[in-house]
Amino acid sequence: MLELYHALTSTCSQKVRIVLFEKNLQWVDRSVNLAANEHLTPAYLALNPNGVVPTLVHDGHAIVDSSVICEYLDEVFPTPSLTPADPVRRAEMRAWMRFLEEVPTAAIRVPSFHMALARRFESLDADGFQTKVADIRPLRKHFYRRMGTEGFKQQEVEESLDELERTMERMETALAKGPWLMGADFTLADVVVMPSIDRLADLGLAKMWEEGYPRVGDWYARLQARPAFAKTYPKGSRLSEGMKIRPLAWA
Fold first, then answer.
1. Neighbouring-strand partners of residue 57
2. What is the end-to-end Cα distance of the chain in Å, rounded?
3. Sign (positive or negative) of CA dihedral 107, 113, 114, 116
4. Using the 8-state DSSP alphabet, how is residue 53 labeled?
5. Which fold is adopted by the domain 87-242?
6. For the chain, which residues make up each domain, given as ranges?
7. What CA–CA distance (Å, rounded) separates 22 from 109?
8. pLDDT, tens digit (0-9, with 9 covering 90-100), for 51-105
9. Distance between CA atoms of 29 and 158, rounded to whole angstroms?
10. Which contiguous run of DSSP H or E holds residue 62?
11. How far, in Å, CA of 74 to CA of 192, rounded?
């Protein structure tokens, strides 16, 4: 039995959901309410001590880290495969995955929180905010402290957007051999970067590729046309559906 502990708006959860749907797997939905801190309960931390989503439980075994979960699912349920059969091509895909985890997956958190999620803390004063984040997410306490109640400093947001643009530059070059990052095959590389690009659209930042990376825009349109995509993003999956997006004051 497959059980997925996840949240609709979590970009890392979205990666895993699309793999499950691409493979037409049956799974038990274990939704986690992040606003209510359900990811910090003793029961959840016993499954995932990092206190983040998603967590996959397969026949009683907990698998953590979204990209690890994606690779696990592709190994255990190999049809249809999302990994190239050739070892060299497989290594190329994994190099993409490492870059995508280190750069855009981390970078997209900053505009996501600055433009939307920081609003959850607007009613707190500085002391109240520090008290609240002292126990929040064991893995990302310092991230919250850098943010504060007003969001991140302009320089940090701009640096994150620069890293996302650098990602699109690499994608644009790779997609010359498209339609996917690895050429003809839709792979885990496309899966890992998908939520970052979709989140930019959700935040009203699609102009980042519309103004200079047309292949990225075409790639995103092809991705949206896949049946698994719509299943991955049901109603409530976008931040803009549940909260007001704060525009970048300097943009």
1. 3, 62
2. 47
3. positive
4. S
5. Glutathione S-transferase Yfyf (Class Pi); Chain A, domain 2 (1.20.1050)
6. 2-76, 87-242
7. 25
8. 999 999 999 999 999 999 999 999 999 999 999 999 999 999 999 999 999 999 9
9. 36
10. strand 61-64
11. 13
Asked whether 28 and 1 are in contact (CB, 8 A), the reply is yes
Domains 2-76 and 87-242 share a fold: no
Tracing tokens 């339609």 back to the chain, one arrives at 179
d(CA 220, CA 214): 10
Over residues 192-219, the pLDDT tens digits come to 999 999 999 999 999 999 989 999 999 9
Coarse DSSP helix, strand, coil percentages of the chain, rounded to the nearest 5 percent: 55, 10, 35
**Best CA proximity match to 170, nearest among 185, 154, 192:** 192
Structure tokens that stand for 128 in this block: 């109240």
Query: pLDDT over 70 for what percent of the chain?
Result: 91
- Between CA 203 and CA 200 the distance in angstroms is 5
The Cα–Cα gap between 226 and 39 comes to 30
Strand 61-64 and strand 55-58: pairing? antiparallel
| DSSP-derived secondary structure for 81-138 | --S-SSHHHHHHHHHHHHHHHHTHHHHTHHHHHHHTGGGGGTTS-HHHHHHHHTTS-T
d(CA 206, CA 212) in angstroms, rounded, equals: 11
Question: Rounded distance, CA 173 to CA 183, Å?
Answer: 11
* Superfamily holding 2-76: Glutaredoxin (3.40.30.10)
pTM value > 0.90: yes
